[in-house]
Amino acid sequence: MAPSFDDPIFISRATTTTTAYSKRRKLMDNHHQQPLLPGLPDHIAQLCLNLVPPSTLYSVCHPWRRLIYTSSFPPFLSLYTLSFPATTSSGHNPTLQLSSFDPISSNWSIITPPTPYLRHICLRHPSFIARNLPMQSISVAGNLVLLAGTTGDLLPALPHPLIFNPQSKTWSSGPPFSTPRRWCAAGASRAAVVVASGIGSHFTQTVLVQAPLHTLLIYA
């Protein structure tokens, strides 16, 4: 039997639900309207809070915690790693994933969506039982730049640099390499990326190894 609108139990439940919803809505409105520092406009308060270590702001209150992750707050260092997923299906060639460690909240998070080029990079190969294949990456101008890796065929995996922006969490492509390579050396000078030496995709039949590249590339 459906409850009647005159049923006191039904009215009590409806009133309780409405009251709970009103309280949550009021708390949410107050939460969003709470100033960063009482008595100061938010843009002035932020100038003051920008001088406080983010680890301190994170532990005080939610408005300050949200401020840390806005684009207007001074950036802080985070750790990024490229690794295989913890669990992979049998017989499946896993795709590398980019993970980020936030030192303020002490949390790991997976960056999605990954760039399709990560599917071409191989970290382990039957020819190298006791070691992982290296990748070359560098941090420059606030971006993470992935420069070189190796495919399953032991060829250079990247035709151009892959650039990850931590602020927007997006990938973009750099200018094409004149000669794609792997196992190269990389460095940075101000906002320029320097790539030196490495192994290209051309084989020499005399020694049955890939010929080294004695070239220097600079990307500004």
Descriptive report:
The protein is elongated and about 70 Å long. With 220 residues, it is an alpha+beta fold. Strands 4-5-6-7 form a 4-stranded antiparallel β-sheet, with no helix packed on it. Strands 1-2-3 form a 3-stranded antiparallel β-sheet, with no helix packed on it. The chain has 4 helices and 12 strands.
Features:
single chain, alpha+beta, 3-stranded antiparallel sheet, 26% strand
Instruction: Please identify the structural class as seen in this structure.
Output: alpha+beta
Distance between the termini: 75 Å
Number of helices: 4
Tally of strands: 12
Q: What is the CA-based Rg, rounded?
A: 26 Å
Mean of pLDDT: 75
**Helix-strand pattern:** HHHHEEEEEEEEEEEE
Poorly predicted ranges (pLDDT <50, ≥5 residues)? Answer: 1-18, 203-216
Helical residue percent band: 10-25%
Q: Sheet bearing the most strands, described?
A: 4 strands, antiparallel
Strand content: 25-35%
Q: How would you briefly describe this protein structure?
A:
With 220 residues, the chain is an alpha+beta fold. The chain has helices spanning 8-33, 42-49, 54-58, 62-68; strands at residues 79-83, 97-102, 107-110, 136-140, 143-148, 162-165, 170-173, 185-189, 192-196, 199-204, 209-212, 216-219. 14% of the residues are buried.
